[in-house]
Amino acid sequence: MAPQRRHTAIAAAVVGVLGAGIVTAMVLAGAPEPERAPPLPDVRPVSVSSAAQGSGAQGSASATPTSLVVSVVGTVAEPGLITVEPGARVADAIELAGGASRDSDLHTVNLARKVSDGEQIYVGVTPPPGVSEAATGGDGPAPSTSDASKVDLNAADHAMLQTLPGVGEVTASRILEWRETHGRFTSVEQLREIDGIGEKRFARLREQVSVG
Question: In angstroms, rounded to a whole number, what is the distance separating the alpha carbons of residues 40 and 28?
Fold first, then answer.
């Protein structure tokens, strides 16, 4: 091949390669870019605020009180406010107040009654006017009954006398001894002559007994 033809062929090859490259670049430049997925939003874990948690805990706690506060006054060692658990009895409150004194008349106090929050328990003292003993730890005055349902002091035996409020085995025996010594009861007020029946106990007995 002549030198001139060789140069011509090489030049044509170079032009062809350059042309192909230009066409390829133009094709690539004109092609649309592939779509990209939009970025995902930040996802944060949802947590209950401390205030909400506190209110929830407070709601559950208020449904079931954990303690009761009562006031114990009267003839106890340490009168004042006493904190007890729900379901506590009057006896529990008195014990936490140091216990009742030896001369306290606990026959007028219902020791087995469950206490309620905010109440006042009177031990060995008379509640102020307008405050019932039943609402403050006592049994309260016995309700009035008809003569037919009252216990006859002159006919009742030892067991029948013990059904009276505040009358136990010892007091019932003393009533029988008084009857044997003095004969028949002529008035209910004669119960005051029996040892162990004071003013408060007599006030609860007088509407429950008769003299036949």
Answer: 30
Residue 209, SS3 per DSSP? strand
The CA distance from 58 to 61, in Å, is 5
Contact call for residues 98 and 77 (beta carbons, < 8 A): yes
User: Of 154, 128, 156, whose CA–CA distance to 212 is shortest?
Assistant: 154
Distance CA 204, CA 167 (A): 10
Instruction: Please state, in angstroms and rounded to a whole number, the distance separating the CA atoms of residues 198 and 172.
Output: 14
Residues in contact with 155: Cβ distance below 8 Å, sequence separation at least 6, in sequence order = 212
**Pairing verdict, β 80-84 and 68-74:** antiparallel
Which residue matches tokens 């091949």? 1
Decide: residue 10, CB within 10 A, 0-12 exposed, 13-18 middle, 19+ buried.
Answer: exposed
**Assigned token pair, 201:** 């106990």
Among residues 126, 146, 149, 145, the alpha carbon closest in space to that of 137 is found at: 126
Confidence band, pLDDT 50/70/90 cuts, at residue 85: very high
Q: The whole model's pTM is what?
A: 0.38
**Rama region for 4: left / alpha / beta (φ>0; ψ in -120 to 50; rest):** alpha
In tens, the pLDDT along 146-186 reads: 555 788 998 889 988 888 888 888 999 999 999 999 888 99
* Residue 93 to residue 99: CA distance in whole angstroms: 9
Alpha helix (H) ranges present in the chain?
Answer: 3-30, 50-63, 90-96, 158-161, 169-182, 199-205
Residue type for position 67:
S
